[in-house]
Design goal:
It comes from Tenuibacillus multivorans. By secondary structure, the protein is of the alpha/beta class. Helix content is about 45%, strand content about 20%. Helix 6 links the parallel strand 4 and strand 5. Helix 3 packs across helix 4.
């Protein structure tokens, strides 16, 4: 038996023993997770800076701060979430009670990406723990310092037969996907998501896939351009654009394009200085392969602003481009970097045709003061989630589910939705033995008449 098989079997044994089923056990593990993040906080800042040059501001706002909120929310509401839910019972079932019990799946596999290496490993883990599962975490090999720290933190804090971190490359991921997990939670690219889903289907393992896509940002002629520019620059260039819900491209009403570009330039310089590469506050591109991919995009259009880069340090300044079209490589792939192409439109209905080139984006952002048009965009275009007059901020509320649709993902999480994702809702009908309704049985003389009346 391989080490991976042994780990999975030990976790299955712990789960079958019923240890994770109680409220006391789960709340204790969530508290330990919270204390773990507090204890290792200085090293978390250090590892994320080493891997991605992340500033302390970005680590706090996009990694640690979010996780602390999620854990606190789960601790506060866990007892309520775990309770069986009583639902109505139809008249035809007189004397019975209908209940929904919350059953954990068992042993879950969490595969996390490199762009938010702490956040996207621990956020689903919060839901898995709250729901009563054990978990194996596979962090990204592209952020080695953070992955090493995650393994150390989990190993020092939890029993290995409860939570385990397994590091490695694609070969290790393949070996993990061959194991009989009870649930798989994957965050990453669409091509790898297809592989995960295919492997899971061979064992009929349920999955959540948090993928990506080309998320549009639409700016209408009546938008407040100063606010729009500030919020777009923040959402796009956060983490150097390496965010699954970053605005991938702008669709700007042609009457306000020039003014918007001017505002965008001003906001970039306010937030990051005229040359962000000279500061130690701008995130670097994760590796040379991704850096070269982004550099090739700069050849596909007209650079309006930015475009400077430093290959040795894998840094690229925020860049605005136009004169691009849907036949370019840049517009066929998710950009995942600090390049923002700008396209224009005249009538709002044209937006639909643009988005059809890359359907079902993970996010959509629309800037306008017109509520009727806001409603038209929200109702008529398919996307995972998004904002009106803002970007990215929908991720920051644990009252909203986060997830994609179609090619941008399957399933959802955050807040209670994380608990629900890792929980099977088990339906149970408790029947009375105080009496028996004879009309339900085939030998009842009046049964057919009574049933027909009940069903109507």
């Amino acid at each position: 038996m391989s080490e991976i098989q042994e780990i999975v079997q030990h976790q299955k044994s712990l789960f079958r023993a019923g240890k994770t089923m109680t409220y006391t056990y789960r709340i204790h593990q969530l508290q330990k997770l919270k204390q773990m993040l507090e204890r290792y906080e200085p090293r978390i800042y250090e590892s994320l800076h080493k891997d991605l040059n992340k500033s302390s501001y970005e680590v706090l706002t996009t990694e640690l701060g979010y996780l602390q909120q999620e854990i606190n929310y789960a601790i506060k509401h866990l007892r309520e979430w775990m309770q069986p839910k009583k639902v109505k019972t139809p008249t035809s079932h007189k004397g019975a009670k209908s209940l929904i019990y919350k059953q954990p799946y068992g042993v879950v596999l969490i595969i996390s990406p490199w762009n938010y290496p702490l956040h996207l490993a621990i956020a689903p883990l919060i839901g898995a723990i709250a729901a009563g599962n054990t978990a194996v975490i596979k962090p990204s090999e592209l952020t080695p310092y953070t992955s090493e720290l995650i393994e150390e933190m989990i190993e020092e804090t939890f029993e290995k037969k409860y939570l385990t971190v397994i590091q490695g490359d694609q070969e290790i991921s393949q070996a993990l996907l061959d194991q009989p997990f009870d649930y798989i939670f994957f965050t990453g690219s669409v091509p790898v998501g297809k592989i995960v889903m295919e492997k899971a289907s061979q064992q009929l393992i349920p999955v959540t896939l948090e993928l990506g896509g080309k998320s549009p940002c639409i700016v209408d002629h009546d938008a407040k351009l100063e606010y729009a520019a500030r919020r777009i620059v923040w959402g796009k260039f956060l983490n150097a654009g390496q965010t699954c819900v970053a605005p991938d491209y702008l669709l700007v009403h042609q009457n306000v394009k020039e003014k918007l570009v001017q505002h965008l330039q001003k906001e970039i310089e306010k937030m990051y200085s005229p040359n962000p590469m000279e500061s130690d506050e701008f995130t670097k591109i994760v590796n040379e392969r991704h850096f070269d991919r982004l550099m090739a995009y700069l050849e596909e259009g007209n650079i309006l602003y930015g475009g400077k880069s430093d290959r040795d340090n894998r840094l690229m300044n925020p860049t605005l481009m136009d004169a691009v079209d849907w036949d370019s490589k840049m517009m066929k792939d998710e950009i995942f970097g600090p390049i923002l192409p700008i396209l224009t439109y005249q009538e709002l209905e044209e937006v639909y045709d643009h988005i059809e080139h890359s359907r079902n984006p993970l996010a959509l952002y629309y800037f306008s003061e017109n509520e009727r048009k806001q409603e038209w965009i929200t109702r008529n275009i398919s996307f995972g989630g998004g904002c009106i007059n803002d970007t990215v901020m929908h991720l920051g509320t644990n009252q909203l589910p986060f997830g994609g649709i179609g090619s941008s993902g399957i399933g959802k999480y955050h807040g209670k939705y994380s608990f629900d994702t890792f929980t099977h809702e088990k339906s149970v009908l408790k029947q009375t033995t105080a009496f028996d309704l004879a009309f339900r049985y085939p030998n009842s003389k009046v049964g057919r008449k009574i049933l027909k009346k009940l069903f109507k």
